[in-house]
Design a protein that fits this description.
91 residues; alpha+beta; GIY-YIG endonuclease; three-stranded antiparallel sheet; 3 helices
């Protein structure tokens, strides 16, 4: 199964990192309030980063590594060529 690591930009300019097998479905769950507790009081705006090709174990490891990054490092990751989402934080 193809697991994906993703980052969502929130209305308060924070970044949420997660893993899933279907980013579109998971974003819809977050937007509907049926996702992570992180979104209680925060509005998810859009997915700004995605990488594919993981199994569950490697996706969880990658998620943990990204969550440890400082916000400026996460923003550099979002701007990097390995990002499968086209555009940037502004668009």
């Amino acid at each position: 199964m193809n697991w994906q690591v993703y980052i969502i930009l929130c209305a308060d300019d924070s970044l949420y990192t997660g893993i899933t097998t279907d980013v579109d479905r998971r974003f819809a769950e977050h937007a509907a309030g049926n996702g992570a507790k992180y979104f209680r009081g925060r509005t998810p705006l859009r997915v700004v980063y995605r990488e594919d090709g993981h199994d569950r174990r490697t996706a969880a490891r990658r998620e943990a590594k990204i969550k440890r990054l400082r916000p400026d490092a996460k923003r550099r990751l979002i701007a990097s060529p390995c990002n499968l989402v086209k555009g940037d934080l502004e668009g």
